[in-house]
Amino acid sequence: MVDSPIRNLIAGGPTDRGGDFDTILELGVESNSTLQNWLVSIVGMPADVAKKKTKAIMDNWFPVWNEEFEFPLTVPELALLQIQVKDKDQGGKDDFAGQTCLPVSELKLGFRSVPLYNEKGEQFKSVKLLMRFQFE
Known about the structure:
The protein is an all-beta fold. It has no helices and nine strands. The protein has one domain (about 5-120): Immunoglobulin-like, CATH 2.60.40.150.
C-alpha cells in the first residue's frame, strides 16, 4: 500500500439560504445568533478515516476560511472526501445546510469549484465551495 497524503484548502463558500453554514471538514463562522462550521472528513478503510474542523470566522456572505487539512491515505482508491455544512444553533441542534462527497481517486490537482447538495441530494444552484487540492 502506498502512503498518499491529500491536502485540502478551503478558500471560500457563499451561502444561498440566508443562514450560516457548518461542514464534515468542519469550518466555523459566527454571525449574530448562529455559528457556521464546516466539518471535513475522509470515509474509507479504517486506517484512512479522519475528521477535521475549521476555526470560526464572521459570515459576510462570501466567507474565506484559508484553512489546510492533510489526510494521509493508505488506500486512496477507496477513500471519499466528505464535506458537510451545518447551521449551528446556540443551545439547540445543528441544522443541515449542505454537503458533498468526492471520491479521492477522482480529485484533480489545483483549485476546484465544488457544488453542495441539500438533504434530498439536489444540487444548490448558487452555492459552491472554492477548494484547492494538493497531493504529495
